[in-house]
Target: Glutamyl-tRNA(Gln) amidotransferase subunit A
Amino acid sequence: AHLARIDAVDEKVHAFLHVDREGALAQARAVDEKRARGEKLGPLAGVPLALKDIFTTKGVPTTVGSKMLEGWIPPYDATLVKNLKAADVVILGKTNMDEFAMGSSTENSAYGPTGNPWDLTRIPGGSGGGSSAAIASYEAPLAIGTDTGGSIRQPAAVTGTVGVKPTYGAVSRYGMVAFSSSLDQGGPCARTVLDAALLHEAIAGHDPLDSTSIDAPVPPVVEAARNGSVAGMRIGVVKQFRGEGYQAGVVQRFDESVELLKSLGAEVVEVDCPTFDLALSAYYLIAPSECSSNLARFDGLRYGLRAGDDGTRSAEDVTALTREAGFGDEVKRRIILGTYALSSGYYDAWFGSAQKVRTLITREFEKAFEQVDVLVSPTTPTTAFPIGERADDPMAMYLADLCTIPTNLAGNAAMSLPCGLAPEDGLPVGLQIIAPALKDDRLYKVGAAVE
Ligand code: GLN
Model:
């Protein structure tokens, strides 16, 4: 049924880069056979899922939205993919994304944009716009995203779906193509809080193949999602996330959510987090710096594209020509920014200062969580903007992640879930819930109470 739905609508939505029809049917048949034999089935047996094209899949193309990896077929599965298969999930295919997960609109994909199912002329968010659009258009009930600065939560917010960035280190990064390794985190996308929790439990867990993987039990997120409640909780409203640049309808729906939390028995207080105003600047030094290092491996020799190799050129020239042809503008912009921020003589002033800001933000979260159980804010300052509107204005594009980035810098957990439609444009608004590291279950407890 989901493959038929993809056939019917994906020409318009363009959520998928690759539909693995045969693989999906084979996985579904294998589940049926297991069931017929009376074998124990995985927790998500037979449930279809759309996978962001940033995870390596054995024998199935993985492009990361880039020409650089066009035609590359990985020889191994990412740990997350192995975990999905162990849960008996049926993987429908790979979803569209901004190239190397850099963007907030999916317009930076080398394979063309994805439409927002609420209004196909608008962006579905990014970088994981394909995953959120696949869920919102009923092409898949579950999807996987990755969140470096907001790429799970911002697409969830603008498509009226649920997305969770788990605590950093909760979901293995092995086989997840690296953008900014200290920030990148895979996580679940779904239409309900409970669905997201079921997927969260299936993908999380310690992995010795990822040196930053957390060796701690997965928080009881499914139990929390089944027992939504905020009674007796202390909830903090982040003072910084409103005012100039915030759409009136977004603020209105957020304020209504706060009233709802109060009416359900939460004590709500305002929390002042002044260093959050510096988060975007710090992020746009740290993320490009790490990206400039991570993307050095795309040298035209090891994987995917090789340009200008006519037998007369040096390896160095082939690498330069390949990188010129293979990377899009935004990726090049970040490599240049990051290389500059890391260069000797500038390192302390740029990268070093950004790391200090990161520490201050982390401490501010710690201080806040001494007073409150969770923090809340709008997920994004505005609803989905029209395709093309911010494409030539990187600063305007970067502002889409104003509310989501501090969480990545500190490494704690956050969720976006729908909280109504903005009256002025009828488009979905996201409520963001932020929890301390390793307390991901609080997101689900609160989310299930207000969903
Ligand atoms: N939009 C942010 C960026 O462009 C975040 C991307 C992400 O989370 N992958 O870097």
Observations:
- The radius of gyration is 21 Å.
